[in-house]
Amino acid sequence: MGHHKHLEGHEHPRSHPYQIVSGVGFVIVWGLDTFVFEFSTQLNAYASGIVRFIISIPVFLLAFYLMRAAGKALFVESEQSSGLLTAGILARVRHPLYLGSMLIYLGCLVNSVSLIALFVYVIQWLVHNMLANYEEMDLIRIYGDEYIEYRSKVPKWIPKIRVN
Length: 164
Description:
By secondary structure, this protein is an all-alpha fold. 63% of the residues lie in helices and 0% in strands. It is built from 5 helices and no strands.
C-alpha cells in the first residue's frame, strides 16, 4: 500500500519504524538467547538441530515465495492495472508481505526455540495485525463495498490453497 506512487491506500504513518524496531528486536532477543545466554532454549533438547533445520526449510521457502509474489503483484503488475488488486497472490491472502516476513521469523524460531523470542514474535504479530487493520480501513475508505467483498472472500493471514 502506501507511499508508493503507483499504489492506492496508505500505510500506517509509522509502519516502517514499527516493522524495523520489532524485527531488530526479535533478531537481537532471538540471537542473544540462542547463541549467547541460552536462557529459554530448553525445548531445543527435544529435537536435534538438523531436524529443526529441515522443518524450517518449507517455512522459509513459503516466506520467500509470498514476498516475491507480493512484490510482483504490488510493485510490477499494479503499474499495469488500475483499481483494487485482487489477482495472483492477493487472491489467496490479503497481506502476503507481512505474512512472509512473519514466516521468516517463525523459521528462525523453529531453528532455535527461544521462549523469550516467542514472546517477541507474538508482539510482532500484534504489530503487523495493527498495521494490516489500518491499511484495510484505508482501502475500505477508497474502495468501499468492493474491498469489503474482497475481504470476505480472501483470508487475512492463512492463504487459500487452491488445488486444480
